[in-house]
Each structure stands twice: as C-alpha cells, then as structure tokens.
Amino acid sequence: MTVQINYKTNILKKTPTNLIVFVDEKYSTKSLKNHISNQENSYINDLLKTCDVKKNLLVFEISSKKKIILVSVKKDFQESDIENLGAELYGSINNGKKTNYSVNTDSISSKIDNFLGHFLHGLKLKSYIFDKYKTKKVTGQITINVIGNKNKFTTYNKLKFKALEEGTFYTRDLVSEPGNVLHPDEYAKRLNSLKKNGLKINIYDEKKLKKLGMNALLGVGQGSIRGSYLVTIEWNGAKSNSKPLAFVGKGVCFDTGGYSLKPAKFMEDMTYDMAGSAAVVGLMKSLAMRKAKINAVGVVGLVENMVSGNAQRPGDIVKSYSGKTIEILNTDAEGRLVLADALTFTEKKFQPKFIIDLATLTGAIIVSLGSEYAGLFSNNDKLSKQLLDAGEKVKEKLWRMPLHKNFDKLINSKNADMQNINYVGGAGSTTAAQFLQRFILNKTPWAHLDIAGMAFSKYGGALNSGGATGYGVRLLNQLIEDNYE
Fold it and tell me: Is 290 a catalytic residue?
C-alpha cells in the first residue's frame, strides 16, 4: 500500500481517527491521559493487565471505527531501532484498505535526534512494493497525519530522508526488473535520464570501449545481442575541485554463466546480478536529490552474460584496460572481469580519494556469511573501519574478510598474467577480491563489498518485505555523512 504523510499542528484529545502514541518500555500509562479520553485510558489500562508487554506494539480496538496503537520505545534504542519500529508499525496497519492514522508526536519522550524522521523513514522503506507487472495492483492507501508540537524537523532532514527513500526505491526498482526488460541497452537509457537530477552522465558504448581497450568487460558481453556499456555518473556538490569519492558497480543484467553454464535453479535469480550497479545508481541519485556537499562519481559496467556462437570460451585470453592479461578458465566468474576494467578506468580517469566497489560477486560469500553480513575486503584499515561503523549504524552490516599474498598466488596463470578463478579451489570470495585488487594500480584506498547474500531477500527483512533490498544505498550515504561532509 502507498503511504501519504501529512503534517498538522492541531491536536485534539478526542482524536476521531486511529491514533498512534509512544510509551516507555514498561507501557506506563501515566502520560496517556494527556493524549486520549479518560474512558479510553481506563479501557486500555484494564486490557494491559493481560497483554504481552515484551512486544514493541500493542493494538487496542476502541470501537469498530477506531484503534489506539501503543508503540513501546526502550531506553537503549538507537536510530536504527526507531526505523525498525516504524517498519513494524507499517506491518501492523497494512490491511489492504484505505485507512487514516494520526501519530501524536507530543507523546515522544526519546532524546534520539530526529526521532520522528527515523520512525517515518522506516515506515516508508517497509511500504515498498514492486507490482509493475501485476494485472491486479494494490490500490489502498495509508494516510499518516502527524500531529502535535514535536512534528517539526528541518527542511534539510525532510529532504535527506526523502532522497534516501527515493534512492533506495530506485535501486529496488532496477533490481526487480526482469532481464528481458532491463537489458544493458535499456539500463544505459534509464541512466541517461538521471541528467534531470543534476548528474553528469557519460555512456561509453562498445565502439568507445574497444578503442579504450576494455577487453575484459567486452569479453563478458560478446555473446549477447545486446550492447555492453560503461557508464559514469558524476555529482559535483563541493565548492572546491577536490578529489571525488568513487563507487563502482557490477551490472550483469542477466547471467547464464556463459559456457560454464549455471544450473537452472541458480539461474532464475540472476536478474539481480546487477544489484551492485543499482546500489551505486541509487546512491548517486540520492546524493543529487539532497544536494550533498561532496564530489562523487559512480561507474557501472553493464553487460549480459549469454551463450551463443560468439560467446567467450573457457581458455580464452583477454587483455584488460590495465594492460594485464587474463586467462578465462570459467565464464561464470564474469563479474570480476567487468569490475577489473571499471576499477582501473575509475582510478586512472578520476584519481579519487577512495574506490568502493559493490557486486553480487560470489556464492561463496553466502556460504560464509548468509544473509546477515556482506563481505568486506580492503587494502585500507581506515576506510574499512568507516564502512563497518556506517553499516552498524544503519544495520546494513559488513564483516571484514582477509586478503593475503598467499591467496593472491592462487590466481597466477601459466599462460597469462593471471586467471579468473582459483586453481586449487576454496576461498572463492577472497581469491575473487585478490583478483580485483590487482587492478588497483596506484595504491588508492579501496574496498570491495560482496553483497551476493544481501541484495535480494526471499523472506523479507526489517525494512523490506521481500525481494530487492536496496542494500548499499543507506550504508554508503551514512559513510559519506559521517566522514566526508
């Protein structure tokens, strides 16, 4: 259901609509009499004697036309917990009907900065649905009337939350699209439309990529009837010409595995193999919408890994943009080939402060970390800590994994400078990261986020209802807010 939020200043003790009020973790009713009628207060007090007060929300049916929902706020709650409360509220009021609710902000006692903003942010994030291809769409609407004297927050904060929501939703939209719709040609076209947000877009098609020598990226897409592209997305929000922050994303719009063909049950989810690029795109849109005072660049490689008479073969050798040669032993280890050229190009062209790449790169990271953490690999301790702290703050968590010269040796090739898979097996995520690190040529601080277990959820999470999660947008925005603005 869609959510409409209205801000009002008037508040009546006998609010006719469904009412949402905040209480402490013990469901103390002392302050309730200031916000509801004596009769309602007495009724709720009586029912509370038999309620499970360990729950975060309790819903009381006052009449056939009115509910009062008590939202319990614990003393140790952080910003992310407040967002989860908002999401939980959406889950309890999402009944498929057009419904009005009033949130009484005068009942807020928490000292968390911008409590209301975080609460509504969580509610909005949870409300996302992708029903574009449903013939029968969800048409209901929930109207939230924000009342009371604590409903005011700055224009900047309103814009920040709106930008984060729209950036996250744009990422989810891209990841949710089927491969027959969002192929590389269509993806590049959609990115070009982001110029209206104030972003500078450059699209490098196959002709330009061949001229540049991006043969690693082009090799992945050569079996498809669709084009292959590298797209740069620039936001210049700093007054100075400072070095940009760089974000690189893997955009494999559909991945069959090529001649190293995936089993059918693993292939059906490969429409989301471009989730790393989608996170970069959503982040860049969000930064532009909120007029972030930094310089940033997003670089995405867009390809389709298909099987055809022209597709790349196991055993092929290609020369990357960096000049290094790669022996392709497994055509399903394709994302690292796309990123290899994109990373070197980003470092050379933009000379950024750091480079962070995001990719649904390996199934091995899901074996290691499941859907609780994304894998973090980095050549820089400072950047790693910043990412870990940001991830903990917004609950888009990361776990740092090792890089080591002994792992690096496992991708040496007898016939080229390197090969695209580990020749002895094991450490699949780490050796993939070691491969990528070889394309950071000038010791630029770099981090690789393997988000294979986080980009898509069949079961849903705290702030999403299943499907594309938008993982990475809020994480990277928090990194920027805390350290670079």
Answer: no
